[in-house]
Amino acid sequence: MNAGFDRIGLGRFAGTGERLARAVTIASVSFGRGLLWLLAAIIVGCGIWMLLPLSRGNSAEPARSDVAAVETAPSGDAAAASPPSEAPIPTMAELGRIRISSQTWRRGGLGSKALVTLTLRNDNDYAVKDVEIVCAFARRDGSHLTDRTRVLADPVSMKSRKTFARIPVGFVNVNADQAKCSLVAARRT
Predict the structure, then answer these.
(1) Where does the source fall among the domains of life (predicted)?
(2) How far apart are CA 88 and CA 77, in angstroms?
(3) Closest residue by Cα to residue 94 from 167, 23, 183
(4) Which residue range forms the structural domain that includes residue 28?
(5) Could you tell me if residue 153 is inside a domain?
């Protein structure tokens, strides 16, 4: 007992499933392309940001220590005039007899930090401590990028050498290819 209602409107709804599946496929492809473009924009933006040099005010350079400000201990009348409760100010070491005999550097911290390995040689007749170094970083062509300072607190015995391995000196520009470290100051122990 078929009244023929099954043929009414079938033309209108026939193929709706296929059209709906096609629309969903097109929407998902469009969403995927949009997501891909967004990801590409983020990657390019981060790449450009990494290539920009650090500004002076926002750099991660540590503050300059007061090691270089201390020159010599008071002597003679000045030492006698100071109260005995104050500890004597340590004297500065002679930098001419302290030198860096070897140095290398590499990147650490996902490529953003500089790790320096260096050997200090102390030819003085006394031990030194609080050795301050400054490392200058340059591009491959030799143009200067940035300087980083670090104080090495470990003492170096008299007439000896000591190797400091993988000392973090701070953040470094991604374009840095060369590093040259030099001594700034040291204290007698």
Answers:
(1) Bacteria
(2) 14
(3) 183
(4) 11-51
(5) yes
Global pTM reads 0.52
- Tokens 């920009």 -> residue: 52
**pLDDT by residue, tens only, the chain of 189 residues:** 566 555 555 555 555 667 666 766 776 777 778 888 888 888 888 777 777 665 444 444 444 444 444 444 444 444 444 445 555 555 677 778 899 999 999 999 888 899 999 999 999 999 999 999 999 999 999 999 999 999 999 999 999 999 999 999 999 988 999 999 999 999 988
Under 8 Å CB-to-CB from 178, ≥6 apart: which residues?
137, 138, 139, 140, 142
One domain, residues 93 and 47: no
Residue 17 lies in a domain: yes
Residue at 45 is within a domain = yes
Q: Are the C-beta atoms of 179 and 105 separated by less than 8 Å?
A: yes
